[in-house]
């Protein structure tokens, strides 16, 4: 590989790279080139001051992230362990997606893996249904806590004081005639969700959309994410959703085992 072809015509400066990211840029260069390099070759690629690159490389060698072979640098033991672990993490994500594919095949509706963030429940992974009539909520979408199956199953798993503090700060926006309009009605359902182990969205977020969500837990039994299925009520009724509880619960356990093994 021609190392000059990798050099950006507008070379970056260290001012453009946050200090905590500079060692990552060195690792990226080594990965792109695909063979051991001298600190000078790395400097030429990055366009950084020679002293900066040499100092960072010396630190990475001392910490075991890089190894010296003569004048050249290659990946060290710690970096190899790091990359191996990241590949394993990627494999866990592959397992998660394969579980979603299996559920989608059995259920015939859209399957979602959803996690709580400060702006709401965020779609992290999903498998779409093949039906032409479907409700599109792309990966990266944030949906409310109070009127979605994933949001309600998350709220129901919070400790009471934390849950009430969060609910007190929620904007209880009304999306449909079925949306919870009061804290009391939401709390009453959350108690039932905690008992059942799953949450149902009864057209609360979108008219004609029904959903079910179950928790994916960490090894200590704490809520980590929600596994959910949604579809139009013409194909996916509330009873259809409840009938999928066992499948989702067993699948959530498989995902948990893969993520936290």
UniProtKB/TrEMBL annotation:
Keywords on record: DNA-binding, Isomerase, Transcription, Transcription regulation
Q: Which SMART domains match?
A: HTH_ICLR (SM00346)
Q: Which residues form the HTH iclR-type domain?
A: 17-77
What are this entry's molecular-function GO terms? Answer: DNA binding; DNA-binding transcription factor activity; L-ribulose-phosphate 4-epimerase activity
Q: Which Pfam families match?
A: HTH_IclR, IclR_C
Q: What is its EC number?
A: 5.1.3.4
Query: Is Transmembrane helix among this UniProt entry's keywords?
Result: no
InterPro entries registered for this protein in UniProt:
GAF-like_dom_sf, HTH_MetabolicPath_Reg, Tscrpt_reg_IclR_C, Tscrpt_reg_IclR_N, WH-like_DNA-bd_sf, WH_DNA-bd_sf
Record-linked Gene3D superfamilies: 3.30.450.40, Winged helix-like DNA-binding domain superfamily/Winged helix DNA-binding domain
GO biological processes:
negative regulation of DNA-templated transcription
Which residues belong to any copy of the IclR-ED domain? 78-261
Cite the PANTHER family for this sequence: HELIX-TURN-HELIX TRANSCRIPTIONAL REGULATOR, ICLR FAMILY, HTH-TYPE TRANSCRIPTIONAL REGULATOR RV1719
Q: What is this protein called?
A: Transcriptional regulator, IclR family
